[in-house]
C-alpha cells in the first residue's frame, strides 16, 4: 500500500510535466538527496570521532587530555564554577559531576580550537609574561614565609645579606632524601636536588669531572642558571626528580599559566634569588671537592656530611633498587668503603679547619633519636627547629612505608634491617672490605 501511494503521488506530481522537465526535476532531486547524504555521512563521522550521549561527551577525556583541563576551559569561558549547569555563548552547558567533562556537543564543536590552544600552551616554552606571573606566585609564598620567621632566622632575610648555603654530601642509600626534605621544609629554602644526576650512577672524584661539577655547583649556589644547558635539559626530561623536592617553585609552576616556566633559566635565576637559604643535596660528589667552597668565607657555606653503616647501605642497594647492580660505583662494597675511607680522612681535616662550618652526622643517630639530632643540626646551621619541622620529623619517622624513596618510614626499625636482609657470607664480605671504616665509625663487627 505504501509503495503504491508513493507511485500515485509521483505520477500526480510529474505526470503533467513535459519529459525534459521531468528529467530536470529528477536530476535536481537526486542532487539534493546526494548532498543530504554527504552531510549525514560527515556528521556521522564527526559523531564517531567525538561520540555524544544524552548525558556526557564520552571522548572528551581522551581527545582533550582529561576532563579537568576541559572543565577549566569551560570555567574560563563562563567565569563560573564548572561543576554546575552554566550558560556559555548563549548555550546551556552541563558539567558531569563525576567525570567533570562538558555534555553539550555543540559547545565542544564551537570551542574545540580554543581548548586545543589551552593544551598546546603547556607544550611550548614559557614566554616572558608567563614567567613573570609565575615569579609573582613564588614571591607571594616567600613573602608569606618571611613574615612567619622568628628573629633567629629573620636575619637571613635582610636586604644585602649573603644567602646561607648548605651542602649535604653523602652516597646512595644513606638516608639523604629524608634529611634533605627536613632541611627543605624550613621556610626560605631553595632546594637544588641532586644537581649531578645527569652523570648517572657514577661518583665525581677528581679530574675534569670534578672541575665541571665544582663549576656547576658554584653557579647553582649563586643562582646562575643561564648557560647550564646540560643541567636544564636533564631537568626538563626529569622534572619531578629535579624540581619536585622544591615545593614552592614546583607549585608555582603548576599553578601558573605555563608549567614550562620551571625550565626557563631566567625564571629559575630570579626565583632562586628570592630565597635566603640555598640547599644542595648530592650523593655523587666526594667530600674532598667541598673544601674549595668552605675556604671561601664569602660563600657563607656549611657542609653536612652524612654517613651510614656500609653494611646497611649495601643491603639497601641490593634489596631496594634495581639500577645499582651493574654499576661498579654502586654495587661494589670495596668501592663504597674506599670512598668512605677517603671521605673520613678529609672529614677529620675539615672539622679541624672549619669547626663552625663542617659537621658529620650518622644516619643511625638520626634514625634512633631524630628530634634531638635534627635540633642539633638546625642549631649548627643557625636555623630554627620550629614546631612545623618537629611535626614533619615525627610524621616521617614513625610510620612504616616500605618504599625505597619514601621519606615516611619507621626509621628506628631500619637501622638493623640489614641483619635480616643480608646473608651472613655477604656480611663478612662487606666487613672485610670495610674494616677500617667500621672501626673509625665505631660500628660493631659481627663475628666471622
Automatic annotation (TrEMBL):
Gene3D superfamilies: P-loop containing nucleotide triphosphate hydrolases. Pfam families: Sulfotransfer_3 (PF13469). GO terms for biological process: N-acetylglucosamine metabolic process; sulfur compound metabolic process. It comes from the Eukaryota. GO terms for molecular function: N-acetylglucosamine 6-O-sulfotransferase activity. InterPro entries: Gal/GlcNAc/GalNAc_ST, P-loop_NTPase. This is Sulfotransferase.
